[in-house]
Amino acid sequence: MKRILQDNSGVALIVTILIISLIVSLTLQFNISMRSDLHAAANLRDGIKLGYIAKSGFNCALAVLREDASEGNVDSLLEAWADLKTLSDNSGALFYEGWFQVEVLDHSGRIQINKLVEGSQYNDTQRKLLTRFLKSPEFGLEDEEVENIVNAVKDWIDLDDEVTEGPGYGAESGYYQGLDKPYVCKNAPVEFIEELLLVRGVTKGLFYGTKEKPGIASYLSPYGDDGKININTAESLVLKAFSDRMDDQMVEDMVAHRKDRNNDLSDPNWYKTVPGMGDVTIAEDLLDASSTNFEIVSEGFKGAMAKRVTGMVKRTGSKCDILSWKIE
């Protein structure tokens, strides 16, 4: 028995194995940690690169807008800023790794939602425009729903706390504070178009659209201070909302007229030269042939990674001021 207790060779072997196992475990853990740090550093590096690539696309679009301003004050979808596909397709040649895709969206071709109200009163021309727009069959709204939404948008923007009535009903803070997650009515101009999601009657389906129906978001803008819409760049649903007498065929003919480079689009009343539209009258204070407010969306790519830069730009003459800026 004494001899067995004095034999420690087996214990030494076990201790050695435990130490080796611990060293191997620590080494593997250190290796994993180093690899994680390496990947994180690489992602950070690529993220920075993508940000600069996207910003490069944004600045290229700015340069195109400035150049366009020097060529005249008429804007249409036939101009370089409206089709930057060639620039995007060739952007890979500008970088060692990566490329960008950039597009310019004309907000001057959209309905200026804040011009619906002047002080605490309706701008009647803008009210009729927005009402006709929301009554488009594509949105699938009943007449009563449209009237309620228009009134609710007015109440969101106007300066008072009086609920707008007739026809339909608007909504002030009394309604919004009764919701499960209460908030107050803004009673001020819309700053970002997503604010409309807070307005009674404007659902996510109506705002963003569904597989079957378009959304209203891409036809409205919080930017602009005169209520005028560039007839040369407005979407078909906006064109149709210009007058009660507009029909789908007229809109198609107007779009075809705009695509013909031989046609003069400098006078916004060119629509009267379109066959069948000689008797149609559109309110003069709705029409323009030039654009001021643009949204630039530039996305940088490197392999499977991407980063987007979105900015709103106000162009005055050849000067472009950035109104808002977002990196995603």
Write a brief caption for the model:
With 328 residues, this protein is an alpha/beta fold. 38% of the residues lie in helices and 16% in strands. The protein has a domain at 1-115 and 221-328.
- Uncertain runs are none
In sequence order, what are the helices and strands, one letter per element? HHHEEEEHHHHEEHHEEEE
What number is the mean pLDDT? 92
* Principal-axis shape: extended
> What profile does the largest beta sheet have?
4 strands, antiparallel
Structural class of the secondary structure composition? alpha/beta
Describe this structure in words.
The chain is an alpha/beta fold and 328 residues long. It has a domain of 223 residues. It is 38% helix and 16% strand. The strands form 4 sheets. Strands 1-8-9-10 form a 4-stranded antiparallel beta sheet. A two-stranded parallel ribbon has the order 2-5. The longest helix has 61 residues. It is extended. The model has no long low-confidence stretch (mean pLDDT 92).
